[in-house]
Amino acid sequence: MSPSKTDSRRGCVRPPHFDILWLPRAAMRSVEGDPSDCVLVVGVSRPKMALAILTVMLISLFLTFHMIYDSALNSLQTNTQDHTRPPLLLLSRRLYPSAARRLPQAIIMGVRKCGTRALLEMLYLHPMVQKASGEVHFFDRDDNYNKGLEWYRMQMPHSYHGQITIEKSPSYFVTPEVPERIRAMNASVKLLLIVREPVTRAISDYTQLRANAATASPTIATPPPKSFESLSLFPNGSINEAYRPLAISVYHNYLHRWLEVFPREQILVVNGDLLIEDPVSQIQKIERFLGLEPRIGTHNFYFNETKGFYCLRNETSDRCLRETKGRKHPRVDPDVISKLRRYFGEHNQKFYELIGEDLGWPEE
Question: pTM of the predicted model, to two decimals?
Answer without folding.
Answer: 0.74
